[in-house]
Automatic annotation (TrEMBL):
<feature type="binding site">
    <location>
        <begin position="215"/>
        <end position="217"/>
    </location>
    <ligand>
        <name>substrate</name>
    </ligand>
</feature>
<comment type="similarity">
    <text>Belongs to the UPP synthase family.</text>
</comment>
<feature type="binding site">
    <location>
        <position position="46"/>
    </location>
    <ligand>
        <name>substrate</name>
    </ligand>
</feature>
<feature type="binding site">
    <location>
        <begin position="86"/>
        <end position="88"/>
    </location>
    <ligand>
        <name>substrate</name>
    </ligand>
</feature>
<dbReference type="InterPro" id="IPR018520">
    <property type="entry name" value="UPP_synth-like_CS"/>
</dbReference>
<comment type="subunit">
    <text>Homodimer.</text>
</comment>
<protein>
    <recommendedName>
        <fullName>Isoprenyl transferase</fullName>
        <ecNumber>2.5.1.-</ecNumber>
    </recommendedName>
</protein>
<dbReference type="GO" id="GO:0005829">
    <property type="term" value="C:cytosol"/>
</dbReference>
<keyword id="KW-0479">Metal-binding</keyword>
<feature type="binding site">
    <location>
        <begin position="42"/>
        <end position="45"/>
    </location>
    <ligand>
        <name>substrate</name>
    </ligand>
</feature>
<dbReference type="GO" id="GO:0008834">
    <property type="term" value="F:ditrans,polycis-undecaprenyl-diphosphate synthase [(2E,6E)-farnesyl-diphosphate specific] activity"/>
</dbReference>
<comment type="function">
    <text>Catalyzes the condensation of isopentenyl diphosphate (IPP) with allylic pyrophosphates generating different type of terpenoids.</text>
</comment>
<dbReference type="GO" id="GO:0000287">
    <property type="term" value="F:magnesium ion binding"/>
</dbReference>
<keyword id="KW-0460">Magnesium</keyword>
<feature type="binding site">
    <location>
        <position position="58"/>
    </location>
    <ligand>
        <name>substrate</name>
    </ligand>
</feature>
<dbReference type="InterPro" id="IPR001441">
    <property type="entry name" value="UPP_synth-like"/>
</dbReference>
<feature type="active site">
    <location>
        <position position="41"/>
    </location>
</feature>
Length: 261
């Protein structure tokens, strides 16, 4: 109780004076966000600070992906969506893009078995067909080998852009109207939801972005209408279990009103 009051006096949000054990207990004793989105920013900057190539930052970032999956699974999150590669990322240097496209293949070798053991279902959001053949095969293998799993839903947004996703939904809905399947007046939020790549998933309760940037960058624009946004200066390769649970702790201590008072 005293701890709680001290925290209120300090600031609106905790500054991380709980130990990891206390934090985990607090988080587990409160409602867990059902769906959490991650914008995994800062790998390049992390590498630069150490005089390493940007690719070293991406490799370190992949290790944190593993830690976040385990941490989410262990507290019973229903779904996480990781923004791994945007449609804009093709503009990066060729070597960097080639390296990024190899990461799912590496991840397949190192982590598929653990994901199966954890009953995790892996899905892709985005045009995976436009990735190199070997990457595409790895992405499909993840999906196929985990499709009947009933635990944590793990979405990788690869070659994803939210405006593209919305445009595609608009085209599909127009087709439905033209085919006489629905009337224009019947188009509502539910119809739109059914045509987005996230169909079947709850909207994200919480979006986490690392690396100090306070932008959404074309990630799940429709779906985040009521999401809590949480930003940290930490670079993605430094973002581990403790920071993740701190974000959930802060989420649990904010009040969400969906526009009401
Ligand atoms: C990527 C590592 C994490 C930091 C952000 C960018 C770099 C894991 C995957 C992955 C994707 C699909 C899959 C299994 C693993 C990945 C890309 C980049 C393109 F089925 N990390 N990671 N994919 N980074």
């Amino acid at each position: 109780m005293l701890e709680t009051i001290k925290r209120w006096m300090g600031s609106a949000e905790s500054k991380g004076e709980l130990t990891l054990e206390e934090l985990t207990r607090e988080v587990r004793n409160n409602p867990i966000p059902r769906h959490i989105g991650f914008i995994m920013d800062g790998n390049g900057r992390w590498a630069k600070k150490r005089g390493l190539p940007r690719t070293a930052g991406h490799l370190a970032g992949m290790k944190r992906v593993r830690e976040i999956i385990r941490s989410a699974d262990e507290i019973g999150v229903e779904a996480i969506t990781l923004y791994s590669f945007s449609t804009e990322n093709w503009k990066r240097p060729k070597e960097e893009v080639e390296y990024l496209m190899k990461l799912p293949i590496e991840f397949l070798k190192s982590d598929l078995q653990e994901l199966i053991d954890r009953n995790v279902r892996v899905q892709m959001l985005g045009a995976k067909e436009e990735t190199p053949t070997s990457t595409y095969r790895a992405l499909v293998e993840f999906e196929e080998k985990t499709k009947d799993n009933t635990g944590l839903i793990l979405n990788f947004a690869i070659n994803y852009g939210s405006r593209d996703e919305i445009l595609q939904a608009i085209r599909e809905i127009i087709d439905e109207v033209q085919n006489g399947n629905i009337d224009k007046e019947q188009i509502d939020e539910q119809v739109v939801n059914q045509h987005l790549l996230t169909r079947g998933l709850p909207d994200p309760d919480l979006i986490i972005r690392t690396s100090g940037e306070m932008r959404i960058s074309n990630f799940l624009l429709w779906q985040i209408a009521y999401s809590e946004l949480w930003f940290t200066e930490a670079l993605w390769p430094d973002f581990g279990r403790e920071a993740f649970y701190q974000a959930i702790y802060d989420f649990q201590n904010r009040s969400r009103r969906y526009g009401a008072v």
